[in-house]
């Protein structure tokens, strides 16, 4: 009984601090979030916040998850556009690129920034508290969302393409890693303003390179069955 009360108290405090962090992000941006601002907004001290979150990056990570709801809700609709696994995977990348380049700080906080801990454990903890955010999602989508490792997420998407005859098994890991590196590279370039890209240009260019990387390993005689085309001029 006592352990149950402690867990209820922990979940309650998590919600207080995450709600406060969400408000700070909405008004000031995730890059301006501090433990003090969050604690003040929640009505507690900074030391109390550190009793529940080991590091500011952890609190920002969980709060940032709140801002991926639109992506999670749209993802199944994008996947449905595809007629085979390669197309479905590319459409899922289109959805991810669209949302991530619209909110770069949010998605970098989840998928790029150093957290000092295994992110899978953090994501599992998040969805233990916010179970309602998974309601109504297909089981396949739930498994993808719950798998934080980007490469593993990609493998979950494209593994069936091997059985469908689109790619060879020994190419699965390659395209999972290469597409991840493409997205991370473009996201870092965009965030650091190394190129003068608009949101749309960065998103479209990232998706174009993802598409080109994937098509290079699709078995030649199957390429004509992949009709997904990114909206960018090759030149």
Automatic annotation (TrEMBL):
InterPro entries: Homeodomain-like_sf, HTH_TetR. Keywords: DNA-binding. Residues 34-53 bind DNA. One of its GO terms (molecular function) is DNA binding. PROSITE patterns: HTH_TETR_2. Coiled coil: none annotated. The keyword DNA-binding applies. Residues 11-71 form the HTH tetR-type domain. This is TetR family transcriptional regulator.
């Amino acid at each position: 009984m006592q352990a149950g009360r402690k867990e209820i108290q922990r979940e309650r405090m998590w919600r207080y601090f995450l709600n406060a962090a969400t408000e700070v992000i909405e008004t000031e941006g995730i890059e301006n979030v501090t433990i003090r601002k969050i604690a003040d907004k929640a009505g507690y001290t900074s030391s109390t916040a550190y009793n529940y979150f080991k590091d500011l990056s952890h609190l920002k990570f969980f709060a940032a998850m709140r801002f991926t709801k639109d992506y999670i809700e749209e993802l199944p609709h994008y996947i449905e556009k595809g007629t085979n696994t390669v197309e479905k995977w590319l459409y899922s990348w289109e959805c991810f690129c669209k949302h991530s380049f619209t909110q770069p700080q949010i998605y970098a906080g989840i998928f790029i920034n150093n957290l000092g801990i295994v992110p899978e454990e953090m994501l599992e903890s998040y969805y233990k508290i916010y179970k309602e955010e998974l309601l109504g999602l297909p089981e396949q989508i739930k498994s993808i969302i719950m798998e934080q490792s980007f490469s593993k997420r990609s493998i979950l998407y494209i593994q069936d393409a091997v059985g469908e005859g689109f790619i060879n098994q020994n190419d699965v890991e390659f395209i999972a890693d290469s597409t991840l590196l493409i997205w991370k590279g473009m996201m870092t370039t965009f965030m650091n303003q190394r190129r003068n890209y608009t949101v749309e240009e960065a998103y479209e260019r990232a998706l174009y390179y993802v598409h080109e990387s994937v098509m290079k390993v699709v078995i030649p005689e199957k390429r004509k069955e992949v009709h997904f085309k990114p909206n960018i001029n090759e030149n």
